[in-house]
Amino acid sequence: MSSRMQQGQPLFILAEGSQRTRGQSAQDSNIRAGRAVASAVRTTLGPRGMDKMLVDSSGEVVITNDGATILNEMDIEHPAAQMIVEVAETQEDEVGDGTTTAAVLTGELLAKAENLLDDDIHPTVIVEGYTEAARLAQDAIDAQVLDVDLDDDLLVKVAESSMTGKGTGDVTADVLAGHVVRAVRMVHDDAERFDRDDINVHTRTGASSSATELVEGVIIDKEPVNDEMPRSVEDATVAVVDVKLDVRKAEADTEYNISSVEQLTAALDAEESELRSYATSLKEAGVDVVFCTKSISDRVASYLAKEGILAFKSVKKSDARRIAHATGAKRLGSVTDIDTDDFGHAERVAIEKYGDDELTFVEGGAASRSVTLLLRGGTEHVVDELERAINDAIDVTVAAIDKGGVVPGAGCTEVAIADHLRSEAAGIEGRKQLAVEAFADAVEALPRTLAENVGMDPIDALVDLRSLYESEGRAGVIATGRFGEIGDPVEHGVLDPAAVKREAVESATEAATMILRIDDVIAAE
Questions:
Q1: 69 catalytic, yes or no?
Q2: Contact 440/417 with Cβ under 8 angstroms?
Q3: What confidence category does residue 135 fall into, taking pLDDT thresholds of 50, 70 and 90?
Q4: pLDDT tens figures, 409-446
Q5: Whole-prediction pTM value?
Q6: Strand stretches in 60-128, DSSP E
Q7: Which residues contact 94 (CB under 8 A, 6 or more apart)?
Q8: How far is CA 39 from CA 42, 44, 52, 496, 509, in A?
Q9: Crossing angle for the helix pair 79-95 and 498-516, nearest 10 degrees?
Q10: Which one is catalytic: 392, 419, 464, 496?
């Protein structure tokens, strides 16, 4: 392009082949994309939500009704639709549950905004109204927080509510919820010490889901490096090693000239002495069990076995980190200069057989600061979905304890939000009032969807919800029998962490307003 152009000559600033969509066309395209993604997970919402079967290009199959998993597995290309995926990811990262709620709410906010745009309301006005509505919604959520002690019975209801409608095999959600609450209570001494990573989940096929158990300690999928090693060690001193237990190699290429049998023998003896010293050093230091993230040579393994030391090689770094944290061990870069303060302790380290596989259990003592839920299932699909359900239950239980208590579930909090927004909208000047009312309608789509998914007429259910809420102060969609009914969620034990509701409103509002602000889409080929 020349530095001087004649008057009237067009100036091209985009690369050839670029596509540009502007104004209402861009907004319509983005809104349709966001609504389409939200509708893909809508039918999974609630205790009677349906599952999705996702098949990738290689033929791998995932069967789930977990919103975050569905959206992550879907091959979504549209940039606005990807924002809905990010909403689910944010919700999952922050509170571990409510991903479907957040995605559906985002889609509904966009749908209501589309109607406002058709009525010539400027996108900025809608954004301002939605932002004000989100603030009011947070006030409504705070007002719904139950003034109760979070005892184990209440937490079981919270965990159970998060799993209701998800695949749990032949075991009921309340049994699994009991395991989850016990696991959280074991490690949740106080906020300063608690670490979500102290609660681990390990899956194993070959038995029904009812065989799921809670283990006080850590489980790793490893076998001893030598068959002569003990299968079980009580009152074990544990070392976690990050160094290869083999003959050390020179950092630079080195050539040795050996001119006699004596020199060869001396070299071999030196090598053997080095290998033997690993086992000797560990034994003299009082170590009973070694977890090594590197390799252990067969000869070192043999010496360790002779010393009665149980050893594991090529332990994943994540497992080594969990074992070190659980037992109180420090991760060692050498086994020649070690101190007893560097070691951890466990009441028992044992190898147990599960079908054709063997698992190693590190239990009790210092290790009881970590717990593991060993999930069983007949197939990989069952244990995968069970794992997702259990992780959600753990996260919501922790969120209930650490992030602001619990609120009534079953759509009750959403009904309260909508009622509060409509009562406050009258005091908001200008066209923003319409956006606040639209936000209320969008929130009410959640209990309406719950009602539809349990087989109720959504319009009649919404009318009954509003009526019961006005008279009793609480109303939700309760799944009973073949269909559902309108009732008090607290009486039926349907509870959600307040943090899940807060995060869903916040993340959905941010995504919807970001999409609404876009009026120009420039896409390169």
A1: no
A2: yes
A3: very high
A4: 888 999 999 999 998 888 888 888 999 999 999 999 88
A5: 0.74
A6: 61-64
A7: 499, 503, 507
A8: 5, 10, 12, 23, 17
A9: 160
A10: 392
